[in-house]
Amino acid sequence: FFFASQFTETFLAERDKQSKWSGIPQLLLKLYATSHLHSDFTECQNILKEISPLLSMEAMAFVTEERKLTQETTYPNTYIFDLFGGVDLLVEILMRPTISIRGQKLKISDEMSKDCLSILYNTCVCTEGVTKRLAEKNDFVIFLFTLMTSKKTFLQTATLIEDILGVKKEMIRLDEVPNLSSLVSNFDQQQLANFCRILAVTISEMDTGNDDKHTLLAKNAQQKKSLSLGPSAAEINQAALLSIPGFVERLCKLATRKVSESTGTASFLQELEEWYTWLDNALVLDALMRVANEESEHNQASIVFPPPGASEENGLPHTSTRTQLPQSMKIMHEIMYKLEVLYVLCVLLMGRQRNQVHRMIAEFKLIPGLNNLFDKLIWRKHSASALVLHGHNQNCDCSPDITLKIQFLRLLQSFSDHHENKYLLLNNQELNELSAISLKANIPEVEAVLNTDRSLVCDGKRGLLTRLLQVMKKEPAESSFRFWQARAVESFLRGTTSYADQMFLLKRGLLEHILYCIVDSECKSRDVLQSYFDLLGELMKFNVDAFKRFNKYINTDAKFQVFLKQINSSLVDSNMLVRCVTLSLDRFENQVDMKVAEVLSECRLLAYISQVPTQMSFLFRLINIIHVQTLTQENVSCLNTSLVILMLARRKERLPLYLRLLQRMEHSKKYPGFLLNNFHNLLRFWQQHYLHKDKDSTCLENSSCISFSYWKETVSILLNPDRQSPSALVSYIEEPYMDIDRDFTEE
């Protein structure tokens, strides 16, 4: 059924005069008539050439700044094109090669495919609902991938697919794409980088965009559901990509190639011309052109871009006066590519095949390659021209420069987190320094340091971790990078506490920098504060030297009060530090050592945490700010910190005392039972969550140096239903206020 065919050409022509349809329905009628199965499509192509400019003018208006001035602008041509069945007709024409007549497959030219794709994209841009309708045609979406085999239609196809996948409800499965492996293997590096834009949508889990904010109840329910359904589409897609020979190696090469190694000027200009006639990268191109024009004014470089509507025969001018492409344009080009590639590598690093990806990334020297790019590309000084997208400013998170830095830091965080390959972030000299620290302290060298393949580490004067510390210390107070920098460094320290790792960072002034940010600059950002408190906790845990340095910096009561104010302003943000100091205090108190005794007697922070009223205040607030229904990955640490305080009390046989004090605090607030009932529910959830067979409990064990069996025992003792037990929560909840059997999973 083709809507335009319901009317005569005469009728359409008459209506066109009144309604100003620009002749589109008549053109569609001709297109329908000339696109039958036995057609040679010559006439079709001529009609498409007539339709195309009518729609591209509207789409160009849509993506430019002017559209914001008139909020109620309509796009009649694209609307009429869709209304009279143009979209469905073009889909049908494009998919003709999937039909066989007498055993022979129909063919249409690349040029015609290109026109169809361009018209479809312009319609998607201007007319609401078209992209969603295309997304529902799964066979069409899969078919589009096959059009990427041709260089001529690659950019148009990739752009349309990216838009469609952005609105598609169900994630596409890459294993359904015909000959995926040969398709990807035949891409050149430029195409592969662009293809990563599509991959970003196909390998990321759809509902975990903000993982930390999802409640654990919801996540646990989702996990149960997933176990019965098998691997998700994103996991299947990741596996499909990793099965392509050389895929990760090529991504590593793209991520680490220098600007000078990237595409030569001629082919880059050719791609820019395609971008200019194609709207996907209109904003990017706008940024590139502004930079080029600014630089060409200074350098008298005559880079001329074709004006809108320039025919392909005119192309780019071949004048002898044209000079080399401005360096910053090349840099911008490379930044746009690296963004996408780093994102894909980062997602693969966090996926099910993490160890396989880790091995490949190490083998293909991604880390030393990024280290060599650090100063010149990743953390280069901004030029005056400020490479930013149109309508944004240099410090906006949408700026490619800024997004590249954040993506780079996220990759480092994923790479270092609980993995012994983290030592590849150092160079040979720095690894020797770690060994010397262990030797001097008379402790065994870390096995992962000894096992590190020295041929895969960073080269040059400094490793990547040291470079990161340098820029971190120079970062302005209000910078959005501080959060990501702290997270990346903290991930290096996570896992089993390593004295040598801590000392390596302490010797480079990291502790003083963190304290300056928390105390002297009185940081206000909650995210940055949380990342700095977490990092400080990992840096100081069980380390006497760190506590000495802390005391030396926080050397007045006034400074200490500012520090406490920051801790107490939000325990969700600071509880990991409270946990680390509490654990350190417990270890120090059990050591016989002059240096430790000196720190215990002098350190304000240890003295403050050692007081029972302080511990009770923390414990009461930690339990009070969380509930089973509001537990997330971000705040579940409050529950574990409260457990650490009670486990250490149990070791000293003071658990009944702490529970009695909690009961008194409840009564003083005139709400008997409200806290302990809540804690009882939280601990029941803890058992469900952490005792699940798929749950990895080693993180709790490694970070606290308390065996997981002791965690489990303590929770069981607290949940003991015997009201005669002095260590059971129910013994401290009076009968009228008891509310412990609620089924929280159904609330």
TrEMBL record:
Instruction: Recite the UniProt keywords alphabetically.
Output: Receptor
Gene Ontology CC entries for this record: Cul4A-RING E3 ubiquitin ligase complex
> Has keyword Cell cycle?
no
Question: Which organism is the protein's source?
Answer: Neovison vison (American mink)
A Gene Ontology biological process term: ubiquitin-dependent protein catabolic process
Gene Ontology molecular function: phosphatase binding
Among InterPro entries, the record links this protein to: ARM-type_fold, TRPC4AP
Record lineage: Eukaryota, Metazoa, Chordata, Craniata, Vertebrata
What name is this protein filed under? Transient receptor potential cation channel, subfamily C, member
Q: Where is this region: Disordered?
A: 300-322
- Keyword Glycoprotein, does the record have it? no
